[in-house]
Design goal:
This protein has 261 residues and is of the alpha/beta class. Helices cover 46% and strands 15% of the residues. The protein has a 6-stranded mixed beta sheet, sandwiched between helices. Strands 5-7-8 form a 3-stranded mixed beta sheet. Strand 2, helix 1 and strand 3 form a beta-alpha-beta unit. Helix 3 packs across helix 4, helix 4 crosses helix 5 and helix 8 packs antiparallel against helix 9. The N and C termini lie far apart (46 Å).
Length: 261
C-alpha cells in the first residue's frame, strides 16, 4: 500500500461474523486504488470460520464514490484495467466466502453505490442518500454498477439517476428495492449484526446456494435455470447439516416461521 494509514479495519467481534469497515474519513471514504486493493485483500483473506460479513464505514458517510483525484491522467487502456480491478474486488464481495450485509449511512453515491450493490443485504439508516453522479461528471459507472444496480431497481430508474442526477433518500431507496431495510440514525450496525447472526446460523451449503447459485440462475434462460435449481436443491438436501435440521424440525426442536414484530 502507498499509504501507512489503514484504509480498512477487519475485526471478528462475534463467532462466525467478520466486520469490515471503510476508513478514509477525510475523503468521505472515497474509493482510491489503495482502498480497492485493500477490499480485494480483505475479502480474499476471510477464513472458513466466517459465516457472515458486516460491511460498514467509519465517519459521516458510507462512501462518496471514486476518488476523482486519481482519475485525470489515465489513458483509455489504463482506464479499462482500472475498471477491471474494481470488478475483481467487488466480485470478491459478492461471490466470496460468506454473505455480506452492508450498513449504509450518509452518502452512498457512485462507486459507493456500486460497492453496496455487490453486498447481499443492504440496511440504510434514515440519513442515507443514494446517487449516480457519473452522468454529470462526464463519466460512466465502472465498478459493475451497470450490471448489479438494474437488477435491484430496473434500468429505467438507473437511467433516471444517471441522466438527471436524481438522488434517492432512504425511503425512496427502500421503495425502489435498492435496500431491504431502513432504520433510524445510528441503528444500522445493530440491525446489520442482527441479520448477520441469522445468516451465520443457517446451514453453510444453503447460504452458498443463495449467494452463488441464485444470482446466476436469475441470469439464465428459464429451462437452464430450473435445471441448475434442481441440481442445487438436491445437493443442499443431501448435506448432513440439512438432514439434521430437517430432523430437528420434524421433532419439534426447530423454530417455526413467524413474522417479526
Amino acid at each position: 500500500m502507498a499509504t501507512s494509514e489503514p484504509l480498512l479495519h477487519v475485526s471478528h467481534p462475534e463467532p462466525g461474523i467478520a466486520h469490515v469497515e471503510l476508513d478514509r474519513q477525510a475523503k468521505r471514504n472515497a474509493i482510491s486504488d489503495d482502498l480497492i486493493a485493500a477490499l480485494d485483500q480483505a475479502f480474499s483473506a476471510l477464513t472458513s470460520e466466517v459465516r457472515a460479513v458486516v460491511l460498514s464505514a467509519r465517519g459521516e458517510h458510507f462512501c462518496a464514490g471514486l476518488d476523482l483525484s486519481e482519475l485525470s491522467e489515465r489513458s483509455v487502456a489504463e482506464g479499462i484495467l482500472h475498471s477491471r480491478s474494481w470488478h475483481a474486488a467487488f466480485e470478491r464481495v459478492q461471490f466470496g466466502r460468506a454473505p455480506v450485509v452492508a450498513v449504509l449511512h450518509g452518502a452512498v453515491v457512485g462507486g459507493g453505490l456500486e460497492l453496496a450493490a455487490s453486498a447481499h443485504i443492504r440496511v440504510a439508516e434514515q440519513n442515507a442518500i443514494f446517487g449516480l453522479p457519473e452522468g454529470q461528471r462526464g463519466l460512466f459507472v465502472g465498478g459493475g454498477g451497470s450490471s448489479r444496480i438494474p437488477q435491484l431497481i430496473g434500468h429505467a430508474r438507473m437511467t433516471d439517476m444517471m441522466l438527471t442526477g436524481r438522488v434517492l433518500d432512504a425511503d425512496e431507496a427502500l421503495a425502489a428495492g435498492l435496500v431491504q431495510y431502513k432504520v433510524g440514525a445510528g441503528e444500522g450496525l445493530d440491525k446489520g449484526f442482527a441479520l448477520a447472526r441469522r445468516i451465520a446460523g443457517n446451514a453453510p451449503l444453503s447460504n452458498f446456494a443463495v449467494q452463488h447459485a441464485l444470482p446466476r440462475i436469475a441470469g439464465m434462460p428459464q429451462a437452464e435455470g430450473l435445471f441448475v435449481e434442481s441440481l442445487m436443491a438436491a445437493i443442499a438436501q443431501g448435506d448432513d447439516a440439512a438432514k439434521q435440521r430437517l430432523q430437528d424440525f420434524l421433532a419439534g426442536r426447530a423454530a417455526k416461521v413467524r413474522k417479526e414484530p
